[in-house]
């Protein structure tokens, strides 16, 4: 979406923290976009940014094949802040010297401010802790630059040329280990770039709706609605923009949580809060038939994904001509798919950039492609979507299909649905639902002997999982109160047929993963 507003550009040199830098900027209510360092200067100029931030990166700037940029960037009169590699590169290009350090600085380091009156150091004490991670260091500054802080092993921890509005920081202000990092970045944005900091979600939602209206005109729009946060927010935004011209297809693959299909229909269906053309396809039987005899996790994912496409395709054909397809792609999907910045591809299942070949349409609309997850939630609240949907925890596309170890059958789906519903209810009652990032029950393929009443049983074991995580790349098991675990266990064994044992999985990720398959 093209928005007329203050923009800060983050030029990505392949550092690990590029998304964090963008987040910190947005936390200051300034809109921010990440571009690869390969983006031509002309394109950057056209965006008319209020400031440019160069990120860290893995290279050594003095080597011939290292990532670099045109020197003209520093002569545009636009404030530039280099972070780590970015700070070194600026010096390398502007007459300073960067060398390999004898002592590699890594971790929490004490910073000493030498120029307290620097605009970067407003409300920053003379001594504080910062996060350093570098092998090279700046041994000499180019003409016009001065040192503004140092650490024990780093003579130039920050530098500036106020006249040219060029600044460099050797440490990582974007990570939380840097005590005053956010303040320093905020100072750059407010004091140096002179941003008014007025980027707000209501303005974003409003201008996005307007832009979609202009783009779509009277065209027909199709959206695959899963009930998850991203597709729900995208669908509601589209419906506000194009009304009746939007059709949402909700494929119930029979692998949703207990009552979930009905809950989605209650909100988005004909009796719900929105005037969507809502089509629910009850396709459980089709999916179970395809899954019969399939027990290998990746094969299951593939079967479910393909069947989903077939069902969706059939519905799309019934609708007739479609001009636009909506996707709930969000910003981390774009960056992780290697299209935004320079970071390596992490997940290949994100369908970003290309058009799926199963529906004939002219263009894709991704109204959330500039937003982080928590910003999508804010947009959802802004659009009036109920809180229980906005704060839903992630649920994998293949659904319970990957929470049933081994072959999927209708009977097993019912067992895991019932156990999971009890688990969720008790977590809610204990007031823990907002503290745990993802929690669910899974059905192990293990059966064991038990005794109930005077009878021998030979039934399944349910595994409970609850994890705390920030980015879902790493996670640790939540330390649930014993009483809660006991209550859930008793209830599952008493209320769910064919379960005689409940296990709590305390494996972290790595070495485990969050889902059991
Ligand atoms: P893992 O199990 O890899 O999960 O630690 C990390 C996050 O990704 C979700 N997940 C999936 N999401 N399709 C999806 O849409 C999948 O096949 C899939 N597998 C895992 C998982 O729920 C967790 O949030």
Biggest pleated sheet: 9 strands, mixed
Shape: globular
Low-confidence region ranges: 343-355
Strand fraction band?
15-25%
The molecules bound to the chains, other than polymers, are: xanthosine-5'-monophosphate
Give the overall average pLDDT: 91
The main sheet orders its strands as 2-1-3-4-9-8-7-5-6
Q: How many angstroms separate the termini?
A: 37 Å
Structural class: alpha/beta
The number of strands is: 18
Helix count equals 14
Query: What is the rounded Rg?
Result: 26 Å
Helix content: 25-40%
Provide a quick synopsis of the model.
31% of the residues lie in helices and 25% in strands.
Structural write-up:
With 517 residues, this protein is an alpha/beta fold. Helices cover 31% and strands 25% of the residues. The protein has helices spanning 18-27, 41-46, 85-93, 181-192, 201-216, 229-242, 260-268, 284-291, 297-319, 331-336, 373-382, 387-390, 410-429, 482-495; strands at residues 7-12, 31-36, 51-54, 80-83, 97-113, 127-140, 146-151, 154-161, 166-169, 221-224, 246-252, 277-282, 324-326, 363-365, 438-452, 455-468, 476-477, 499-504. The strands form 3 sheets. The chain has a 9-stranded mixed beta sheet with strand order 2-1-3-4-9-8-7-5-6, with helices on both faces. Strands 12-11-10-13-14 form a 5-stranded parallel beta sheet, with helices on both faces. Strand 7 (146-151) and strand 8 (154-161) form a beta hairpin. Helix 6 packs across helix 11 (373-382), helix 8 packs antiparallel against helix 9 (297-319) and helix 13 (410-429) packs antiparallel against helix 14. The protein is globular. It binds xanthosine-5'-monophosphate.
């Amino acid at each position: 979406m093209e928005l007329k507003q203050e923009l800060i550009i983050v030029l990505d040199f392949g550092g690990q923290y590029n998304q964090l830098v963008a987040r910190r900027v947005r936390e200051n209510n300034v809109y921010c976009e990440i571009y690869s360092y390969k983006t031509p200067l002309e394109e950057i100029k056209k965006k008319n940014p209020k400031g440019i931030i160069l990120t860290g990166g893995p290279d050594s700037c003095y080597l011939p094949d290292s990532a670099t940029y045109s020197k003209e960037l520093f002569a545009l009169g636009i404030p530039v802040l280099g972070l780590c590699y970015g700070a070194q590169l600026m010096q390398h290009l502007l007459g300073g010297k960067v060398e390999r350090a004898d002592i590699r600085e890594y971790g929490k380091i004490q910073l000493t401010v030498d120029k307290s009156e620097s605009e970067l150091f407003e409300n920053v004490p003379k001594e504080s802790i910062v996060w350093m991670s570098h092998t090279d260091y700046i041994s000499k500054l180019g003409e016009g630059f001065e040192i503004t802080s140092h650490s024990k092993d780093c003579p130039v921890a920050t530098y500036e040329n106020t006249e040219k509005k060029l600044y460099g920081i050797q440490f990582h202000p974007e990570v939380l280990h840097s005590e005053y990092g956010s303040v320093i970045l905020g100072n750059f944005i407010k004091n140096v770039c002179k941003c008014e900091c007025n980027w707000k979600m209501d303005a974003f939602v409003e201008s996005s709706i307007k832009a979609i209206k202009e783009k779509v005109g009277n065209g027909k729009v199709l959206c695959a609605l899963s009930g998850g946060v991203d597709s729900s927010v995208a669908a509601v935004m589209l419906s506000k923009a194009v009304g009746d011209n939007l059709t949402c297809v909700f494929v119930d693959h029979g692998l949703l949580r207990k009552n979930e299909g009905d809950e989605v229909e209650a909100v988005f269906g004909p009796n719900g809060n929105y005037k969507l053309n809502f089509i629910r396809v009850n396709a459980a039987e089709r999916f179970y038939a395809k899954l019969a005899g399939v027990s290998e996790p990746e094969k299951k994912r593939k079967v479910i994904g393909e069947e989903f496409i077939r069902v969706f395709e059939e519905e799309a054909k019934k609708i007739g001509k479609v001009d636009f397809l909506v996707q709930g792609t969000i910003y981390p999907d774009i960056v992780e798919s290697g299209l935004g910045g320079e970071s390596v591809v992490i997940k290949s299942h994100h369908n970003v950039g290309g058009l799926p070949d199963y529906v004939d349409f002219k263009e894709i609309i991704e109204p959330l492609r500039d937003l982080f997850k928590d910003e999508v939630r804010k947009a959802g609240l802004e659009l009036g979507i109920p809180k229980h949907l906005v704060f839903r925890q992630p649920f994998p596309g293949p659904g319970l299909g990957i929470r049933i170890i081994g072959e999927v059958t209708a009977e097993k789906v019912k067992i895991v649905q019932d156990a999971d519903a009890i688990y969720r209810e008790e977590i809610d009652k204990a007031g823990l639902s907002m503290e745990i990032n993802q929690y669910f029950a899974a059905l192990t393929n293990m059966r064991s002997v038990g005794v109930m009443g005077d009878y021998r049983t030979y039934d399944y074991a349910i595994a409970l999982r609850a994890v705390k995580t920030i980015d879902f790349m790493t996670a640790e098991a939540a330390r649930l109160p014993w009483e809660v675990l006991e209550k859930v266990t008793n209830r599952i064994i008493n209320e769910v047929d064919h379960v005689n044992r409940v296990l709590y999985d305390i494996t972290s990720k790595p070495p485990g993963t969050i889902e059991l398959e």
